[in-house]
Amino acid sequence: MALSGLQIYKLLPQTNCKECGFPTCLAFAMKLAQKGTELAKCPYVTEETRTQLDAASAPPIRLVTVGTGDRAFAVGNETVLFRHEKTFVHETALLVRVRDDATDLAERAKAASEYAVERVGMTLALNGLLIEAHAGDAATFVKAVETVHAACPGTPLVLSSGDPAAIEGALAIVGAEKPLIHAATADNWQAMADLAKKAECPLAIRADSLDGLAELSAQVSGAGVLDIVVDPATHNLRDGLAMATLLRRLALKKNMRALGFPIMAYVGRDDLYDEAAQASSAICKYAGLVVLDHVDPALFYPLITLRQNIYTDPQKPIQVEPKLYQVGTPGPDSPLLMTTNFSLTYFSVSGEVEGSGKPCWLLVADADGQSVLTAWAAGKFDALKIAKTVKDSGIEAKLSHKKLVIPGHVASLSGECEEELPGWQIMVGPREAADIPSYLKTAWAAS
Amino acid sequence: MATVEIPREKWSGTVREVTLGATSDGGTRTSTVTVGGEATLPFLQFEGAMPNKPAVAVEIHDCYPEDWSPALLAAWGDEARDPASWAVKAVAAGAELLALQLRACHPDRGDRTAADAVATVKAVLGAVGVPLIVYGPGVADKDNEVLVAVADATKGERIALANCVDKNYRTIVAGALGNGHVVIGQSPIDVNMAKQLNILINDMGLDLERVLVDPTTGALGYGLEYTYSVMERLRLAALTGDSMTQQPMICTVGEESWRQKESRSPDGVPAEWGDFETRAVIWEISTAITLLQSGADIVTLRHPAAIDRVKQAIDELMSAGIPDALAAAPAI
């Protein structure tokens, strides 16, 4: 169990030396209890205390890094069961499985590794490849690892084989790049743990029960492997959800160190839509690594989008870029609407405009990511800001009219806006986005 | 071997059960749909009951939806030109209930009368045996006019009348009250507003066994995470005993997901988005699965392939028994 701040305080030197950066040992202890700092910051703890406190000060779900260099990814370190409680922190890693005996091995690996897509101003990609021993002999596996490594340099890898000899051969090629070794089982754990420890690589443990996983975890950590990934070997949506939920609960609520590791989920299915459903479920419910089978952008793009949605910090809602947006293909006589750059506000407004079928210019003001009313109340969306946004956007040159529709919630600003924007006609739009289509058909059409 | 104790949650609250459709006392349905009743978070049947599986509704319209994505128009074909034929095709595609939108009653889209609306609803009821949700055109006065006429003309059918919103619910609730129907209360992605609307509806004397909540759906990439978290919060509140959050939830997945540019048109989008129809169907499936994981009791869908896949996923999540891995384990 985690120790309370006071319990930790009793184990500290209690000298208030301040070398940890905190004013008192008590303050340091309190922060440790909240997992907000590290014990290593105190230079005076005894070895005995360190052992006792290490368990308490480590995060409940260990952060595990796979790969090296720019494309290395880290999963784990999650602290909540529900994203609204705080946030999910380390995005699910999306991997594609390639088999060592596939004739198109290099092409598949390359296509998955190089896939990237632009979304809300960011370039998003998959995280790595899982090379699976399918042929059954170590030589084919090692050869495949060599092929993939040559075709996709720098891509984080998972080496998947139950045969320690195959893993050993593969590690001789890519061991320095910290691949995840998959997997230690009841039968081979000693050899796998030895390989992982020697190469300093993370190791996945695979068993189909919580008991089996806990036992394996104890065994491989006893052998010196600390970076562990848990593969609960489930085969359907129901069991995958149940096991992932229990693993997360045990780690967070029962502080069960033996199971406090990122979870890996195989979601590959023959049917692409089935795979999409499995992967969506795993991304929502606690998978740290998701292993796909299909190499298809029509699958990758929705899943990358879902991962971004679920891992968005609910306390820092995503902002959209403040700029001039086109909904449909607006022309010089199309309406010009203004709103703020809170993402939900933007999506509501652009969705309704899109649904109206009428192409529009949508000018989004920088209101620090706040909604119209909040931004107005905070003084971040006033007549000056509106006027500046219009002038800076260059929209005037694109229009044959000078009519600006402002949100109904800031109707009171229309007079000031007309003063700040000489020659412009300020029109007051609806308060709610849902009323935009009828507004465009009536008030705008009549203007 | 070490024995891990299973951390089962014990909840004090239960979601209400709501039944749509009736087979007697004025009801002419051949099947009904009951949703809700959960005593656990979605699909965690190893620790609590989930007596009813989430239902898949299919959206149909009273006029040809010419603004729909070409992928949808191709899938429904000429049947989409006639609501009764469309209804039959939707049921054949797996609809457990239908969500009929009376769009042509909108003043800007034909302004059809209440009598027209009643005729359409009766035609659909005559063509299929599944329960019905009926959506007004979304304009307060017209909603009241057509939904009340529909409610009166279908007494006893236990139709879900939609949408009740905070500024316009009284007339629709009254229509449901007198005729044995159900209502859907829609609130804008907010826990407290959802609760408040339930209180207002309940204050008019409508049993909460006849109220569904629509928390407002954001599609994948377009606010999905807000809906997801509001629904998780509503469901957690329901399970911890907050009475006014214990309504089954309905999500308009098809409508929202097919409105986005990822699903609307094959043209002018990046190659990295992949094949148009495949991506658009996955957009709908992924939105549906995500909201089912946060507590949706009804998902309303549009594409036949999504209907098929989401129903299979629900069956897989609901499959009998408990995971093998937990069978012999003791509870904490």
What does this structure look like?
The complex is a heterodimer of chains A (447) and B (332). Chain A has 447 residues and is α/β, with parallel strands linked by helices. Chain A contains 16 helices and 17 strands. Chain A has helices at 5-11, 25-33, 47-57, 105-114, 138-151, 164-174, 189-199, 210-222, 237-253, 272-284, 297-310, 343-356, 372-377, 383-393, 414-420, 436-446; strands spanning 64-66, 73-75, 93-99, 116-119, 122-125, 128-132, 157-160, 180-184, 203-206, 228-231, 264-266, 289-292, 324-327, 336-340, 360-365, 403-406, 425-428. Chain A has an eight-stranded parallel beta sheet. The longest helix of chain A is centred in the middle third of the chain and has 17 residues, at 237-253. Chain A is globular and about 80 Å long. In chain A, 49% of the residues are buried. With 332 residues, chain B is α/β, with parallel strands linked by helices. Chain B has eleven helices and ten strands. In chain B, strands 8-7-6-5-4-3-10-9 form an eight-stranded parallel beta sheet. Chain B has a two-stranded antiparallel ribbon with strand order 1-2. In chain B, α3 links the parallel β4 and β5 (132-135). In chain B, α3 packs across α4 (140-153) and α4 (140-153) runs parallel beside α5. The model of chain B is unreliable at 328-332 (pLDDT under 50).
